[in-house]
Structures
1.
Amino acid sequence: MVALAVLIGALIAPRLNEERRDTRIARGTPAGNSGSAATARREPSARIPATRPHLKARAPQPAPLPKAPPPAPRTARAPAARLIKPRAAIVIDDLGQSFSHLEQLAGLNIPLSIAVIPGLPASARTASEASRRGIEILLHQPMEPREEGGKNPGEGVLLTSMAAGDLRALVRANLAAVPGAVGVNNHMGSKFTEDAAGLGALMAEIKEHGLFWLDSRTTPGTRGMEAALAAGVPALERDIFIDAEVNADFIRRQVRRLVERARLHGTAVGIGHPHLETIAVLRELRGELLASGVTLVPVAALVRKTPEIGTGTALAAAQADTGGAGRPADDRKTATP
């Protein structure tokens, strides 16, 4: 019996081993490995995707920027602006006492401006004739000097003690007495031009009439420019007193200083008076002034920075030229009336 069992086992064993091998192959288990352990080791590798997930995916790269167009061909530069000639203005104060002063100044045939004091014997006639001849007119407004000066500024004077309404009314009356005025400058006024309140009222009236302000700078403490800028009034300051000394040699030097200052700073403003000596020196230096390379203009052309002299002006006809505007010099001669 035992022999028979061994014989049957020997015949059946190869058959059973062959069936087990087929079963492992069907399950994916290689021959020679234990079924469960081998399957556990092989199954993960069967699920690994072809993209190799242990590496990070690369971000998509942006499309390359288009190439910049080739630079445009260069064009010729615009021609540089021509050089502007320096300009100077001469203002003659204190007109109105004698009509002959206007006639003498008009006979000089150079562009200048006149400042007329209101209420003098020839004020109205001087203003009227100057307007007819195309000569620029300023109201030479009397203002309060220092008490210790001992000078009388005349009628229509603005005082620091006045209320704003009274000040403005007085300025309106003085403008009516000097018809055609395009600006205002101070006659004396070493005290008034240091008073902020009084200047504020003055500038309000000047602005209402569309005029400009020229500060004669009769005191180093003047606040005239400050008040004008605060009120939005076009303004300029005097650079040189031409005849602070009534002497021909001094006046001659000052006129030449005015020309040099204009060359240095672009513009310059000189103030003189209708003294015989002043008029004589201006007549003597007329040719020198016209040939100096500095264009003489009425002061409004500087304060308003207009590019050229007004046409149709008798005095301006002597110099029909353009010029530039610039800031006056800071080192000004001052005098306290």
2.
Amino acid sequence: MTGIATRRRQSVNDVGTETEAFPCGRGLRAMIVVRALFVAIGLIVVWQAVIFVFAPPAFMLPSPAAVFAALRDRPDLWRVDAVTTLTETVIGLIAGAALGALLALLMSFVPPTRRMLLPLMVVSQALPVFAIAPLLVLWFGFGLASKIVMATVAIFFPVASAFNDGLARTDDGLLDLARLYGANHAQQVALLRVPSALPSLITGVRLAAVYAPIGALIGEWVGASSGLGYAMLLANARAQTAVMFACLFLLAAMSVLLRAVVDLLTRNLTPWVPETA
């Protein structure tokens, strides 16, 4: 097995040397940022054009200026509520990603557990999130705990599913070579399946980073004393549509920020997988 591990490290180093010769990753990320900025500016221009042409009532569709004014006049939205939702989301993302990865590893290290865990995972996602949110608030209270659990439940499945799929799709040639060297099942998983499945795990975590705020937001809608979801409920009851749009803007910015942070943290975990446009 030492020979297999050595060969794998050498192949990874060779691929890393080749990718360094073509440093397109930084340029690709800059291109993505520029595209995102153009898309955001384009949406604001279209939004303002709709306001100018159709002149809808402010309680139906506020102007971009009214939304930014709400952000300026309500600093508690981004000082308190946004921080609360971001805290719930980040902790839920970490817990959900860890739980999903552990479940996938358990199913890979102990194959009989797959027949028991996979149906339970599917059932956990088949239930409507709104249906279990009141129970979680009842069990864990109106504080951060219920929102963290909700975010964890909402995102662990994409991570577990993607990682499990990657673990199950390891190259048969590598596994046959490992058996030829006398590797047992645990060594095959640790030395071959896990490194081969890292791109799938990263994909699942990146997807979870986008979905993570949804779980926290639903938990705040059901019962909370702060957070963007709670602020949206109050604004809806008072017909403050500009405040609701301001909360949506903060949620969108939060999702983009989380995705960017996850990309930054996972950038060098799989140097043998090239980035393409």
